[in-house]
Design goal:
alpha/beta; Rossmann fold; seven-stranded mixed beta sheet; two-stranded antiparallel sheet; 6 helices; about 30% helix; C56_PfpI-like
Length: about 190
C-alpha cells in the first residue's frame, strides 16, 4: 500500500509551492492528494520578485483540481501534510477543517511541511507555541506573536515540522522533509 500525503491549499496558493512538493513527493513514491475547502478546480498564482519593489508581485498561475474537500479528510489516512504558501493560508487559517487536520498531525507528531505564508495556518491552529519555524520573512511577527521562534532559513527542522521561507527554498525544504519522512517511517 502506498503511503499518502495531503497538501492543504486553495485558490491563490503559490504555484511553485504546490507543484514542487506534489511532484517531488510523487517521485519519491507517495500518493499525494490536494485538499481544499471544496473539491473543484483551484486557481494558483505566481509570486515573483521585482527590482526596486518593496514586496513580491502576483500574477495568475496554473489551475489544478482539488482531490478532496477538507471536510471529507480523515487525517488518519495520511502520513504527512504539506502547507504551501501564497495567499491561500490567509483564508485557510479561518477554516475549521484545515485547523482540525493541522492539529491532528501535531498531536500525533507526524511530519508537517510548511513554507512561505503556510505558517499562518499553523499559528491559527495553535501549534507553533514553543516551536521554531521559518516563513516568509515578513511573517516573523506572526510566528512570534503565537509563542513561536522565527528562523530565517530555507530548511528549518524542529521535530516533525520542516519549514522554509518561500519557493526559492523548494529544493532544500523538500530534501529536509523527505529526511523527516524517512525517519518517521523507520
Amino acid at each position: 500500500m502506498t503511503s499518502k500525503i495531503l497538501i492543504i491549499t486553495g485558490d491563490a496558493a503559490e504555484t511553485l509551492e504546490v507543484f514542487y512538493p506534489l511532484h517531488r513527493l510523487q517521485e519519491a513514491g507517495y500518493e499525494v492528494h490536494i485538499g481544499a475547502p471544496e473539491k473543484r478546480k483551484l486557481q494558483f498564482v505566481v509570486h515573483d520578485f521585482v527590482d526596486d519593489f518593496d514586496t513580491y508581485t502576483e500574477k495568475p498561475g496554473h489551475t489544478w483540481d482539488a482531490d478532496i474537500a477538507l471536510a471529507d479528510v480523515d487525517p488518519a489516512d495520511y502520513v504527512a501534510i504539506v502547507v504551501p504558501g501564497g495567499r491561500a493560508p490567509e483564508y485557510l487559517r479561518n477554516n475549521e477543517e484545515a485547523k482540525r487536520i493541522v492539529r491532528y498531525f501535531f498531536e500525533k507528531n507526524n511530519p508537517v511541511a510548511a513554507t512561505c505564508h503556510g505558517p499562518l495556518l499553523l499559528a491559527a491552529a495553535g501549534v507553533l507555541e514553543g516551536r521554531t519555524s521559518a516563513a516568509y520573512p515578513e511573517l516573523a511577527i506572526d510566528v512570534e506573536v503565537v509563542g513561536g521562534v522565527f528562523e530565517n532559513g530555507g530548511a528549518v527542522v524542529d521535530g516533525n515540522l520542516v519549514s522554509s521561507r518561500a519557493w526559492p527554498d523548494n529544493g532544500t525544504w523538500m530534501k529536509a522533509f523527505l529526511e523527516v519522512l524517512d525517519g518517521a517511517s523507520a
